[in-house]
Amino acid sequence: MIILVGSQKGGCGKSTTAVNISAQLAKDGADVVLVDADRQCTAANWAMDRAQNSKLATVHCVQKYENIRDTLLDLDKRYQHVIVDAAGRDSRELRTGMTAAHILLVPFRPSQPDLDTMPKMQEIILQAKDLNPNLSVCGLLTMAPTNPVVNEAKEAREYLADYPEIKLLETIIRDRKAYRDCMPEGQGVIEMDNAKAADEILSLVKEIF
């Protein structure tokens, strides 16, 4: 299965989401490859750090830019799961990846600048579905406040109801320090001492699959 993690805006936790999904799947015994299609190389750097720790479950990683369609289709034949980290903008990698993916996961923060990207994102999705009608699209709230009094997550859900092409997941990824700490260690939060963050990623993986 090909899962493309992409959005039109940077800073929404896209790479963090992709590597944590990969770590969870690997920990569960799946054969997973992480495709870094973002020239910032955040996911690839994480994978290199991870490879230095033999105690961690293996996450294979390749880097591919521009037209990534054929690469994804080939990897899908050789791995159980292909997780793709695309650049946080309207890129060639995002558009070509959408023509091959089974699932597009769109992370976004519960903030107006992120929500403002949704009309354009839905337009891109509709164009991709002309070439890949079986593409499923899921929205994921990320970096949401941990304070239950803050209603940003609820407001974002109401806003996204106007975009039927994007199915909003029940799982919410909160703004936790653990997500920042895991990146330089080549780990997922499921391999660190933070039960709440680990439960969020486990919930996300279960909901996607």
Give descriptors for this structure:
7-stranded parallel β-sheet; globular; alpha/beta
Task: Please provide a brief summary of the model.
The chain contains nine helices and seven strands, in the order E-H-E-H-E-H-E-H-E-H-H-E-H-E-H-H. The chain is 42% helix and 22% strand.
List the total number of helices: 9
Multimer state = single chain
Largest sheet: 7 strands, parallel
Helix content: 40-55%
Strand-and-helix sequence, N→C?
EHEHEHEHEHHEHEHH
Strand percentage, roughly? 15-25%
**Record field, number of beta strands:** 7
Integer average pLDDT: 93
Secondary-structure-based class equals: alpha/beta
Poorly predicted regions: none
Which value, in Å, is the CA radius of gyration?
16 Å
N-C termini distance: 10 Å
Structure description:
Strands 3-2-4-1-5-6-7 form a 7-stranded parallel sheet, with helices on both faces. The model has no long low-confidence stretch (mean pLDDT 93). The chain is globular. Helix 2 links the parallel strand 2 (32-37) and strand 3 (60-63). Helix 1 runs parallel beside helix 2. The protein is an alpha/beta fold and 209 residues long. It has helices at residues 14-27, 42-51, 69-78, 92-98, 112-115, 118-131, 152-160, 177-182, 195-208; strands at 2-7, 32-37, 60-63, 81-88, 103-108, 136-144, 167-174.
